[in-house]
Amino acid sequence: xxxxxxxxxxxxxxxxxxxxxxxxxxxxxxxxxxxxxxxxxxxxxxxxxxxxxxxxxxxxxxxxxxxxxxxxxxxxxxxxxxxxxxxxxxxxxxxxxxxxxxxxxxxxxxxxxxxxxxxxxxxxxxxxxxxxxxxxxxxxxxxxxxxxxxxxxxxxxxxxxxxxxxxxxxxxxxxxxxxxxxxxxxxxxxxxxxxxxxxxxxxxxxxxxxxxxxxxxxxxxxxxxxxxxxxxxxxxxxxxxxxxxxxxxxxxxxxxxxxxxxxxxxxxxxxxxxxxxxxxxxxxxxxxxx
Length: 290
Ligand SMILES: [Zn+2]
Fold this sequence. Notes:
- With 290 residues, the chain is α+β, with helices and mostly antiparallel strands.
- It has one domain (6-289): Metallo-beta-lactamase, Chain A.
- The chain has helices spanning 36-39, 96-102, 147-154, 156-160, 164-170, 172-176, 229-232, 244-261, and strands at residues 6-9, 12-24, 56-66, 71-74, 112-114, 127-130, 133-136, 142-146, 180-183, 188-191, 194-198, 207-213, 216-220, 264-266, 275-281, 284-289.
- The strands form three sheets. A seven-stranded mixed β-sheet has the order 1-2-3-4-5-8-9. A seven-stranded mixed β-sheet has the order 10-11-12-13-14-15-16.
- A hairpin with a 2-residue loop joins strand 12 and strand 13 (216-220).
- Bound molecules: zinc ion.
- Residues 119, 121-122, 223, 268-269 line the site of zinc ion (ZN).
């Protein structure tokens, strides 16, 4: 039985496919501006068992969208058996594909894979190891990825970066198999009701994904934020935000859009259900899990 959180947005069923959970201790190792006192004003966040003054929990997962005619996987986690510098990402062996099966899908039934950005915890299950080669995990899927990310990793600077391996083992095989569709950094409806929106800052290529069906909306905003505390403190960047000012501006813009549209917010890294609503309160925002 699938006990994972699931939601419905119009005619689209949305399920989370968990890969792993990672705690950051102390909290400032994820959110450098963290202050314990601020947490008390955050609508009971201090009751969250995975958020304490000693550490904050994060989740790594995909969102599976199922319509009458399509199955869409958004972001693909860290992946198994990948060689990574960070120990929490290195050579993992998680039952991610088994969890996908519990949710009713297999490697053969995914029609589309959508990436919010090319980071190691968002592209990993793009590929699996087969006879010592990295091959597309979802051979029948079309994989959408931001063109800016592809260009960045193929630039001279990108090729020299220590994290270039993620591109080689998790993105290049998709391009070589002609399964990739590059998304331009503009508002782009790539499938009916599925629209990419540029939200750069966390990374140069970062994009969010708006989901619309029968008048209802949800947004998967990738890593514009990692933790509900950032709803209350939109100026708090994570240590992973490459362009600090753009990251703050994109976070604020998405929070305003989500609060004003009433869209369901589907987080890429929050724990609990990883989903909820943003409301305006005073000059800021509040968060409630759903
Ligand atoms: Zn991430």
